[in-house]
Amino acid sequence: MNSFVILSMLSLITTSKCQALLTSSSETLRGEKRVTDILRSMNNRLQEEIRHSDARVKRLEATVNSLSSRISSLENGKDSTLSSKVSGAEQWIAGQKTGYGRLVRLVNGGSSYGRLEVNIDGHGWGNVCDDNFGSTEATVVCRQLGYRNGVVKKEAYYGEGSLDIIMDDVDCLGSENAIQNCRYVGKDKENCGHSEDVGVSCS
């Protein structure tokens, strides 16, 4: 075998080994890249979980702080919402004891709003005209029912009634404990129709 043939064979063997080595190196690099991508993805998910956990912890802390503040307010008697409800209940009880709370009612609405009907001296129920009826008069009514404030609703806002109109031109100072104690024009002297039936919304 001459030297040319030997050199050719050595060249082929060397080239084949180099190609195999390059192929192996390329596969190794691709494998390392896949591993790197997987690790990077896992790291991103872990960081996202940490962020969500931090947000949940902050929400829990806010809830705990709010509850702690509410408990402290209740213990110190400073909870305004509870105090308002207790005060309203006390006023309602006082109204029932004196009878004033049983002399007004709100119909065609809800427990705290509706068309106003009144009973004067136990002689039966009647509607009230909205002439001159304002927030002062509405508040007097609402105090009778155990609430603090009142807003007037005019022009049969809660629908027209069918009873006699027994109060018109109601005029209160605001200190009265019942709407019946305010100045007003009575039955047969009023000049209203049921399209002017007054309503009240209490809070």
Automatic annotation (TrEMBL):
<dbReference type="InterPro" id="IPR001190">
    <property type="entry name" value="SRCR"/>
</dbReference>
<keyword id="KW-0325">Glycoprotein</keyword>
<feature type="disulfide bond">
    <location>
        <begin position="172"/>
        <end position="182"/>
    </location>
</feature>
<keyword id="KW-1015">Disulfide bond</keyword>
<keyword id="KW-0677">Repeat</keyword>
<feature type="coiled-coil region">
    <location>
        <begin position="43"/>
        <end position="77"/>
    </location>
</feature>
<feature type="signal peptide">
    <location>
        <begin position="1"/>
        <end position="20"/>
    </location>
</feature>
<dbReference type="Pfam" id="PF00530">
    <property type="entry name" value="SRCR"/>
</dbReference>
<protein>
    <recommendedName>
        <fullName>SRCR domain-containing protein</fullName>
    </recommendedName>
</protein>
<feature type="domain" description="SRCR">
    <location>
        <begin position="104"/>
        <end position="203"/>
    </location>
</feature>
<dbReference type="GO" id="GO:0016020">
    <property type="term" value="C:membrane"/>
</dbReference>
<keyword id="KW-0175">Coiled coil</keyword>
<keyword id="KW-0675">Receptor</keyword>
<dbReference type="InterPro" id="IPR036772">
    <property type="entry name" value="SRCR-like_dom_sf"/>
</dbReference>
<keyword id="KW-0732">Signal</keyword>
